[in-house]
Design goal:
- The protein is largely without helices or strands and 34 residues long.
- Helices cover 0% and strands 0% of the residues.
- The protein contains no helices and no strands.
- The chain is elongated.
- InterPro entries: BCAT-like_C.
């Protein structure tokens, strides 16, 4: 079997990504997949 690469993630619940009550409150890294 081949090697796998590690991935570091940061989860921050102090900085919102959207207006309260609006859509898009979670930013997904999958949004940037090719």
């Amino acid at each position: 079997m081949g090697r796998t690469a590690s991935l570091s993630l940061l989860i921050d619940d102090k900085l919102p990504r959207a207006y309260p009550g609006g859509t898009g409150g979670v930013k997904n890294i999958g949004n940037y997949a090719p």
